Amino acid sequence: MKAMLLEHAGQPLRLVERTPPAPGPRQIRLRVEACAVCRTDLHVIDGDLPNPKLPLIPGHEIVGIADLVGSDVDSSMLGRRFGVPWLARTCGTCLYCSTGRENLCDAAEFTGYTLDGGFATHVLVGIDYAFELDPLADPVALAPLLCAGLIGWRCLKKAGDAKRLGIFGFGAAAHIIAQVAVWQKREVFAFTKPGDVTAQGLARQLGCAWAGSSGDQPSAELDAAIIFAPVGTLVPRALTLVRKGGRVICGGIHMSDIPAMEYKVLWGERELVSVANLTRGDGQEFFSIAEQAKIHARTTAYPLQEANTALDDLRSGKLSGAAVLTPWPISARHWIPRRRANL
C-alpha cells in the first residue's frame, strides 16, 4: 500500500510503500476512497498536539470500502462503505464511558494521532467505531462530514436553542454546520479573517444572514457563538457579541492562549465552554440530520501524494471548504476484493 508518513513533528510527510495491514479481532480493513484534511491534522503534524504515535499516517476523516475483515466480524461487511472518525477506541468502563461521555475517556485512542489514519490507500478500523455510509454517495463529499461535520454538530448542540448564531472561522466545519443551522431556521452570522471575501461570499451563498470580518460589528446581538478558528483572541471578542445568558463554544482541539479580559466581558451569566472529540451517538444523530438537510460539503480534491500541498493550502487559508485526498484514480476507486483475514 501507499501512505503519507509523518516521521517527525514539523517535517513534511513522506510517501512510502508498506505491506497492507491485516485486521485483527473486531477490525475491518478499508480500501480508502477519500480522506479529508482537517485542521487537527495540522496540529498533529506541526507539533501542537503532544505525543503522537511516530512514525504516523495522519488522517481521520476517512471513507472507504471494506476489503478484508478480521475475526468476530461478519463477512457480510465486505464490500460495504464505512466512514472512520477521530474517535477510534474507548475503554467502555470508566466514569465517562459509563455516563454517555465516551468522548472524554482517558484511555481513548484517536485515528491519525495515536493510531494510523487515512492518508493512505488502506486503513484498519474497529468495526464498533465505524459508521456505515451511503454506498451511492460521492465519497469525496462524504469525507469532511467525518470530523468537520461531527464536531460542528456537537458544537451546534452546545448552542442550545440559540436563534442568532455567530460562527468564527468559516472553514470546513463552519460551512457544513452553517447549512444545518440555516435548515433549522436559525440566523447565522459568519465571521472570517479580515478581508476574506471568498469565505464571506460562500457564507452568503449558504444562507447566512450576515458575513463580515472578525472585527466587524454584526447587524444583531447574538444568542450564541461557535469559534472554529484556533485563535484565542476571538474568545473575548465573541463574548462581547453574545447577549446576557448567551454562550460561546470553542470547537477546536487546540487554540492559542486566551488573553486576559475584564470580568464584565463574561458577566451577565454568559458561558464559555469547549467541545472535545465526539461520541458515536453524535455520528448517529448527525448523519441522519445531514441527509434530511441535504448537506453538501464544498471540496477541493488532491491526489494522495500531494498531501503536503493540501496541508500548506489549509495552513495558509487558500481553501474554501475542505481539502480531500484521493488515493486512487477515479476508475479504480470501487474495486472490491472479498475475503476474510485468517486470524
Overview of the structural elements:
The protein is of the alpha/beta class and 343 residues long. It has two domains: 2-146 and 278-340, Medium-chain alcohol dehydrogenases, catalytic domain (Quinone Oxidoreductase, Chain A, domain 1, Alpha-Beta Complex); 149-274, Rossmann fold (3-Layer(aba) Sandwich). 23% of the residues lie in helices and 26% in strands. The protein has nine helices and 18 strands. It has helices at residues 39-46, 139-142, 148-158, 172-183, 197-205, 234-241, 263-266, 280-293, 307-315; strands spanning 2-5, 14-17, 27-37, 61-69, 81-84, 87-89, 109-110, 122-126, 131-132, 164-168, 187-192, 210-213, 222-227, 242-250, 271-274, 299-303, 322-326, 339-340. The strands form four sheets. Strands 3, 4, 5, 8, 9, 16, 17 and 18 form an eight-stranded mixed β-sheet that branches. A six-stranded parallel β-sheet has the order 12-11-10-13-14-15, sandwiched between helices. Helix 7 links the parallel strand 14 and strand 15. Helix 3 (148-158) crosses helix 4 (172-183). Residues 338-343 have low confidence and may be disordered.
